Amino acid sequence: MGEPHAIVVGAGIGGLAAALALHRRHWRVTVLERAAAPRELGTGLTLMANALRGLDALGVGDTIRRQGVPDSPGGLRTSAGHWLSRIDGAALERTLGTAALGIHRTALHRLLRDALPASTLVTGADVVDVDADLPAVTYQRNGTPTTLPADLVVGADGLHSVLRRRLWPDLPAPAYSGSTAWRAAIRWTAPVATAVTWGPGREFGTVPLGDGGLYWYAAETAPPGGREPDELAAVRDRFGGWHEPIPALLAATPPGAVLRTDLFHLATPLPSYVRGRVALLGDAAHAMTPHLGQGAGQAIEDAVVLGAACAGGTDELAGALAAYDRQRRPRSQAIARASARAARYGQQLRHPAAVALRDGVLRLTPARAALRAAARYADWRPPG
């Protein structure tokens, strides 16, 4: 009998991680990507300890560590620059056993892609339907429809997942979180902490990247659909009077480098991540707000657990997928709920009295308690 065959729909970070996890467990994998060329849009991200442990399990952790920058000491500040809470990066590393890492999304995407056989990825494949029982995927490529059978289908097709809509048609669409965000990756060689600054209804964050780069993001509570002729000017208008180095970072940002995205999430959780022989992961399964920095980390965890569950190939595949759902759904959905709460009590908080109360509590919180809170969601280890 030949290798079992898996189709992964979507070649983002979660999809490539899932393909690698299954490939390492002796599955033949086909990744169907709608885009005409492999790419990962976006700027930077922080890989917490859980994500790095997952990447270690996929055999690429050391390579990725060489591409990124370990988090420097940081924490939370007010728009005037006063520290509300400090997080010592070295203490966090001692607590979790590994440092968090800032890396450009493009670099992470490339490293995952390069770890797979070149024949794995099929680009320009627009998936239009899925059969969970066969299973099989139907896609359009160059105007030609193709139905491709497999032993397993993995839905990693993101926030607006086609597979999720097909298999759970009654599930409400992703909901607007109440926040819009701007992001950019720029050249910046001066030391900058990995930190978040809060103002009423707004936040600004910085993450150093490898090769002299820095990722910044800004967010505010606003109606969806807003757009400005010059998004960088809009960010300067809102954040240009905040503490340094925020004005300097904005001055160093080319206008064309700024991406604006309304933040959506799955407000109604899925009742299962599995339907027949189809398993969802990443944003397709549990799209969350970015306020805990766990979106990519949870997708990587999903991929590692799915690969481990399916190590036996097609033998007892139904039980393997049930085990995947049992392990991943409670944790990932709890983190999604926590991320939405973090937004409400963090960036989205606007009432002056509520902001003052929150900031006062943070100032009085012992450093050890703040460290435990920072480590809580990153304390995960792959299956043995």
TrEMBL record:
Residue intervals of the FAD-binding domain: 6-338
Domain of life: Bacteria
MF-aspect GO terms: monooxygenase activity
Pfam families hit by this protein: FAD_binding_3
Oxidoreductase among keywords: yes
Matching InterPro entries: FAD-bd, FAD-dep_Monooxygenase_BioMet, FAD/NAD-bd_sf
Keywords: Monooxygenase, Oxidoreductase
Protein name in UniProt: FAD-dependent monooxygenase
The species this protein was found in: Micromonospora halotolerans
